[in-house]
Design brief:
With 163 residues, this protein is α/β, with parallel strands linked by helices. It has 6 helices and 5 strands. The chain is 42% helix and 19% strand. It is globular.
Length: 163
Amino acid sequence: MIAIYPGSFDPITLGHLDIIERGSKLFDRVVVAVLRNPGKSPLFTVEQRLAQIRTATQHLPHVAVDSFDGLTVTYANLIGAGVLLRGLRVMSDFEKELQMAHTNKTLSTEIETVFLATSTEYGFLSSSMVKEIARFNGSIDHLVSPHVASEIYQCYNNQPTQP
């Protein structure tokens, strides 16, 4: 079974990697799919995010990385995926994700959504929080992979303050 883990991944965090690693144990193949959303102003281009994800997941043989635009279920049908993989951190995630799962079911009855609760240590983590911390010279080394941290520090032209 092919699962898609869709998102913006701007940037990919250790929480995302946790879901990818755990999902790769449950499914034959996990496609980390970066959504091309023209309505957002991301820190990194789609190409940069794809490269970051490929580097972060290179140790996972059954994980592929791709990008798409449009509806996730359309992309899922295009590549023959039967599952949308989603991570849940807090109750507000559940409400939003359940609504999306129900909506996707109306668009494609053959695609299921599978939720994984985040590991406890990543329950607070989001890409926007990582960017906020880095913007104000905080250390993000414990929140993202080293190569991603380096690229974020370069974007903000700073180095983290020592704790």
